[in-house]
Design a protein that fits this description.
Blueprint (H helix, E strand, L loop, with lengths): L3 H5 L3 H4 L21 E4 L4 E7 L3 E4 L2 E15 L4 E13 L2 E3 L2 E9 L4 E3 L2 E2 L3 E3 L4 E3 L2 E2 L4 H16 L5 H5 L6 H6 L2
Amino acid sequence: MFDKHRDKKPNQARTADPGPAYAPTTAEPSLQVTGKAAVIGPGITIDGDISGKENLLIEGKVKGRIHLAAHEVTVGQSGEVNADVSAKLIRVAGKVCGDMTAKEKIVINSTGNVRGNIVTPRILLEDGAIFKGSIDMGPGEAATAQTASSVARTAVKPGNPPELVAGAVKINPDSALKSG
């Protein structure tokens, strides 16, 4: 009888949902880092070389050189990089001034601003991206290694002429002088 009104109020201790302790990122899918990543926050400035064995997300400022051969480098919207960057995969939504070399792919987001040369087998420039430099798109390491191994197999076969093995064109000096 006396507890009628007490039952109508929800027990806040049981139903309260505090939510996540952190604010989830609203990064576009093309900029999300896969797996765990080291983070250089917006308030951090690094002057020097960075190398390591994990993915890297840059929201701060980096000056120097970044080398993560088997991992990803992501430059967030607030990130500013004045460095040469080499990695397996590079994503840019901020500013990069320097050469970039990726073994797999480079993605420049619509908010990205890149000034430098790019070497990669695949590249994606989103609409609105700013880029000034040159792009060198080779077939990548896998195709280069495959070509080298096929040349080596050709060299092993008996009876192959030397010019086929070396991959060179043999020019007869007498025929070069006679043409004319």
